[in-house]
Amino acid sequence: MSGQIIDINDAVAELEKKGLKVDDSSQLKYYIKNFNINTFLVEYSQFFLDEKGVFVNTTSSELIELYNFDKNFGNHLFRNILVLEKIINTNVAYTVINHYNLEDKCLFRLKRDDLEKRVMRNYRNITPQIAFEGLLVKMTRYLESKKSMRRLADQKIKDRVFQWHELPLDIMCLSWSFSTTFSFFIALENDVQLSILRNMNVPSQLIKGFSMFVENSINVRNLISHNMVLYGEDVKYQSEELNDLYELLNKDKIKDGVFRMPHLIKCVSKIIGDDGENNLYIKTIASINNLKMSQEHKEKILKLYLL
Length: 307
Description:
Elements: H1 8-17, H2 25-35, H3 37-48, H4 60-99, H5 112-119, H6 132-140, H7 147-150, H8 169-172, H9 178-187, H10 190-199, H11 207-225, H12 240-250, H13 261-272, H14 280-289, H15 295-305
């Protein structure tokens, strides 16, 4: 023991004690030092341990290979979810502008009462619940941080929300997070929600499944952006409507009724138009087969991703 509370050599010794074969000590120490001890002691180690908590024929290089695979997979999925976010964000803004015939495209030129009781009449359906004023603040929170938008604020108006009455919605929406876009979508009246789905070529009868799919996409996006482990991660929200969305989009059945990460990958790919021969799902399976680890370990990972 070195006397330090967190010591890299102690961490390596702990892994060796569990049966890990350290074939490149300096590489392992580099990863533990820079990417959190618990990433390897707790998270990625679990994949290789038997029921007694002992590594099964595993080298430190294989442990690091799993880490790098998971991070690369997360990066690719994150990029696809960003595209999904942009598509939904744009279609929400365009549909609202057209539906309400906003010739100047400025949503906040409507009266507050019209916004609450007509345009965003379903705001109470947002979870966790948010007051209407809170939703308006959420929609305008980051506008001042961008120079091109800041100049469109009407400084004569003291109301921090309605000073943006001259800002077109298709510009305002560029400042929204995925969560804000989704909250606005949920708040919209039903006819507008269905129009948005039709504009995205998603069957309107799948509104519930689509909403749950977006919630899952936001959750996975947050996991990735917080550098959390993805491999083997369950998809948080489950429903028959979500399964119906997958089956209709992909012309394929979910055999055991459980919506998993590969199903999410395929739905994202389908909606963003990345469903050709080199889509993310196919590339993920190919990258697993190319991992530098034993066939036994590769087959175990494939079971998590193969449908």
